[in-house]
Design goal:
This protein is of the alpha+beta class and 319 residues long. Helix content is 25%, strand content 25%. Helix 1 packs parallel to helix 2 and helix 5 packs antiparallel against helix 7. The radius of gyration is 23 Å and the shape is elongated. The protein starts with a strand and ends in a 17-residue tail after the last helix.
């Protein structure tokens, strides 16, 4: 079979390597080069570099649904399209283009956690497991029939980064099994049960803000889920009345203490404890804007914090 791979995110790299090594890979469709970090110079996705090293043609349409992009893909005559972390919604014409199938590798146990932030959503929701779903693509968001799934338990200290890496390594074997079944015409088509569908929208940096009115256990999961992206942050009054923005890192611990939401209830060299909507949360490592990541002992050496100080949300106003 002539296989076309569509992907951009780092999570797709092991699956792309497997496809490139084991199948006739006629091309890669990925996002255009984008500026990364402080540099204004566009940088190619890592998956593009791998494709070029392997001599695989690369297409980078700004909008895959445009006529010229669809014509370029059709000219490659794919029998099968494999999609993983591509970053654009595919039009019906593209979904129906390959005679064998257009399939997606999704990092959740569908129909739970459809959407872009499925890794973070599973951790923040307190799920006991996650995994990989290989599915036939349909016009709805992650709504297609399931070919196969593989489950893994979520670890007690699981972060968005650790789950990303585990799913990335799990996916090639699942994809291999699905592609082989498609070649043999023996793949399953299991409809998703819409009663259990949930949605995990794309996140941005603002979604990492901590709302201290939430229970401590929920915030502990959010901090792990959002590490490393989009991260989590809070604020407290700084010099001259200007808010001091703090990025918060895992691990954090559920602590004892009572107070109003966001109130500092304990200060010691092991960490600071902040009252939440239920319980308290002990922070161990933070980073102030313009500063470096510090353990609490180092941070307190340069910032005077007192019991009763109040942490608040920049977006929601002082709480």
């Amino acid at each position: 079979m002539r296989v076309l791979f569509m992907g951009t995110g780092e999570i797709a790299l092991p699956s792309f390597r497997m496809v490139a090594d084991e199948h006739v890979t006629i091309g890669l469709v990925t996002q255009p080069d984008r500026p990364v970090g402080r540099s204004s110079k566009p940088r190619p996705p890592r998956i593009k570099e791998l494709a070029l090293e392997a001599g695989i043609p690369v297409l980078q349409p700004e909008r895959v649904r445009r006529r010229e992009a669809l014509d370029e893909i059709a000219a490659l005559a794919p029998d099968l399209i494999v999609v993983m972390a591509y970053g654009q919604i595919l039009p019906k014409e593209l979904l129906e283009m390959p005679p064998r199938a257009c399939i997606n590798v999704h990092a959740s146990l569908l129909p739970r956690h459809r959407g872009a932030s499925c890794l973070q959503a599973a951790i923040e929701a307190g799920d006991q497991e996650s995994g990989v779903t290989i599915m036939h693509m349909a016009e709805g968001l992650d709504t297609g029939d399931i070919i196969l799934q593989q489950r893994i338990p979520l670890l007690p200290a699981e972060t968005g980064g650790s789950l990303h890496d585990r799913i990335a390594q799990l996916s090639p074997g699942c994809l291999r099994e699905a592609v082989n079944a498609i070649r043999e015409g023996s793949e399953e088509r299991i409809p998703q049960d819409e009663r259990f569908a949930t949605y995990a929208p794309k996140l941005d940096r603002a979604d990492g803000e901590l709302d201290w009115s939430m229970p401590a256990r929920h915030l502990e999961r959010r901090i792990r889920a959002n590490d490393p992206w989009p991260g989590t942050f809070t604020a407290l009054p700084g010099e001259h009345g200007r808010p001091l923005r703090l990025k918060v890192f895992p691990p954090v611990a559920i602590a004892e203490g009572e107070g109003g939401s966001g109130e500092l209830v304990a200060v010691d060299t092991d960490g600071i404890s902040i009252a939440c909507g239920g319980g308290a949360l002990q922070l161990g490592e933070v980073q102030a804007d313009g500063g470096r990541r510090l353990g609490m002992r180092e941070f307190l050496a340069g910032h005077r914090l007192l019991v009763g100080d109040r942490f608040f949300s920049l977006e929601r106003g002082r709480e």
